Amino acid sequence: MAWFLLIVAGLFEVVWAFSMKQSEGFTRLWPTVITFAAMLVSFGLLSWSMRVLPLGTAYTIWTGIGAVGAFTVGVLFLGEALTPLRVLAAILIVGGLVLMKLSSPQ
């Protein structure tokens, strides 16, 4: 259950990052509201998963999901560049996440 909550927390991190971009510096109401709501959910689920998972594992997985997810959303929805080096960086992050999961005792 802790792993599931951690993955959902990471997905909510992507939501708040995207909505923060859409808020244009917190000048647009609804994207700002979504940003803060998604932050609360994301942090809450991260905290809950940390009851079971080690800090280093949970935080690394959470930020990794957020990083790769934000990269993907940026490319798919915001027209950000999809270059070989950026793809390689995302692959390396995912590889690190897999290794972190495999090395976790839970």
Describe the structure in your own words.
This protein has 106 residues and is mainly α. It has one domain. Helix content is 81%, strand content 0%. The chain is built from four helices and no strands. Helix 1 packs antiparallel against helix 2 and helix 1 crosses helix 3. The longest helix is centred in the middle third of the chain and has 24 residues. The N and C termini lie close together (11 Å). The model has no long low-confidence stretch (mean pLDDT 96).
Assembly status: single chain
Low-confidence stretches: none
Q: Give the helices and strands as they follow along the chain.
A: HHHH
Strand content: under 5%
Report the strand count: 0
Return Rg in Å. Answer: 15 Å
> What number of structural domains do the residues give?
1
What is the distance, rounded to the nearest whole angstrom, between the alpha carbons of the first and last residues?
11 Å
Average pLDDT figure: 96
Largest pleated sheet: none
What portion of residues is helical?
Answer: over 70%
Protein name: Guanidinium exporter
Pfam families: Multi_Drug_Res
Keywords: Cell membrane, Membrane, Transmembrane, Transmembrane helix, Transport
Main location: membrane
What's this model, at a glance?
The chain has 106 residues and is mainly α. It has helices at residues 2-22, 29-49, 55-78, 84-103.
Keywords:
transmembrane helix; single chain; flat; mainly alpha; membrane; 106 residues; cell membrane; EmrE-like
